[in-house]
Amino acid sequence: MAHTSSRTTIVFIIVALVCAFVPAFSVVEAEAKSLWGTCLLKISPKCALDIIGVVFENLTITDACCHDLVQEGKMCHNTLIKYIAEKPHLVAHETEYLTKSDALWNHCVSISQTA
């Protein structure tokens, strides 16, 4: 049962990412589109999904993805997490997700500083 829930969540996340990046599915202001385009160039899709998994699924992240996250930048990280956390079925726990997002950022910065 938990496995099905995880698959459903992963599918939702992928759909949310597609909707975020395909203008036909999402109305996004020009400034936000530019930021998303800039952020997407700095991080691999696998690491983006790993980051989302840490914040929304309590998964773990590799040191390599932590380095990518720090390279991506705090503004890109915050934009991605806030966009997903504001979805109707997640918004009730938005504060929790943003707290986890900050904890992930701090963890990754400490990992990057020791390398």
Note the topology.
Blueprint: H1 2-21, H2 30-40, H3 45-57, H4 63-72, H5 74-85, H6 94-114
Helix pairs in contact: 1-3, 2-5, 3-4, 3-6, 4-6, 5-6
What does this structure look like?
The structure is a single chain. This protein is mainly α and 115 residues long. The protein has one domain. It is 76% helix and 0% strand. It is globular. About 7% of the residues have low confidence. Keywords: Signal.
Following the backbone from N to C, one meets helices and strands in this order, namely HHHHHH
The stretches of 5 or more residues where confidence is low (pLDDT under 50) are 21-28
User: Can you summarize the main beta sheet?
Assistant: none
Report mean pLDDT, rounded to a whole number.
Answer: 79
Total helical elements: 6
Distance between the termini: 39 Å
Helix vs. strand class: mainly alpha
Radius of gyration: 14 Å
Query: Given the C-alpha coordinates, what overall shape results?
Result: globular
Number of strand elements: 0
Strand content: under 5%
Summed up, the domain count is 1
Q: Which descriptors would you attach to this protein?
A:
mainly alpha; 115 residues; signal
Summarize the structure.
Keywords: Signal. With about 120 residues, the protein is an all-alpha fold.
